[in-house]
Each structure stands twice: as structure tokens, then as C-alpha cells.
Amino acid sequence: MDIYLLNIVCIVLLILGIIGTVLPVLPGLVLSIAGVLIYKFGTDADLSMVYIYIFALLTIASVVLNYTIPAKTTKKYGGTTWGSIGSVIGTIVGFFIPIPLGFLIGMFAGVLVGELLHDRNDMKKAINSTKGALIGFIYGTGFSIMVGIAMLTVVVLNMMNII
User: Fold this and answer.
1) Rounded to whole angstroms, how far apart are CA atoms 38 and 41?
2) pLDDT score at 1
3) pLDDT digit string (tens) for 50-102?
4) Residue 94 and residue 14: Cα distance in Å, rounded?
5) What separation, in Å, do the N-terminal and C-terminal C-alpha atoms of the chain show?
6) Model's pTM, two decimal places?
7) Residue 39, CA distances (Å) to 48, 129, 147, 158 in order
């Protein structure tokens, strides 16, 4: 396969991976690490294996953090299992609602509804739990975006023979 075409495929995968850190329909950093691996082994680039190991570890860390951070922050802000279940259901339902960022709105609505089903008299607790879910989403997504941008930057700099 033409080396220029492989480079384009790598860049496209890296960009889709960054987009996928926000959109749940794409596998996020898995696409990015695939782009890095194709670049390293498909184009026979002189990219150091240290980058591969670091990015693989950061991808694994990101997957773990994307599940644990929102749960921890929701719990920290008073959330219950009901809110967590509502979050999952809301995300799935929101994904199919044809509005921009429906999955995100669905997640927050799910936390709120789940907490209100648990205790309908405590609106303040339900809102705090939703705030915790938002903070957790921002932390987890922010970390993933930074890792994806780092992968893209390293590959582009290596393509330009800067590193």
C-alpha cells in the first residue's frame, strides 16, 4: 500500500479517535492507538517504541478513568445507584433522540430522573448528583482528548521529522 495513503489513514484515525472521545458512537482512543500502530508498523516509521508503550498505557488508563471518574464524582456529590442506572439508560435513550449531543443530555436527565425516583422529595440531592455526573464527564473526556491530541501531535511531528 502506498505510504502516503497509509499516512492519511493514520491521520484520519487519529482525528476520528479524538472526536470519538466525545461521541459514544466511535471507540475514541482505540481508533487513535490504531492510527499510531498503523503509522509505526505500516509505514515503517522511525517512531520510538517508547511512544507506543506510553500511548497504550494512557489509552488503558483513559478507559478505566472514563468509567470510574463519573461514578466517583457522582457519588461524591451525593449520587446513588439509582442515578447511575438512570445515567446509563438516559445515555442510551439520548443517543437515539435526534438532537445535538442527545446522549449527553440523556445522561444528565437520566441521573436526575434516577435520583428523583429514589427520593422524589430531595430535588437538591438530585441536582447535585447531576452536577457530579457533569464534572466526572468533563474530567474523563478532558483526559481522553488530551491523550488523543498528544498521539496526533507525536505522529505529525514524526512525519515532519521533528521527533
Assistant:
1) 5
2) 66
3) 999 999 999 999 988 877 787 778 878 888 888 888 888 887 888 788 777 78
4) 26
5) 24
6) 0.80
7) 11, 42, 17, 10
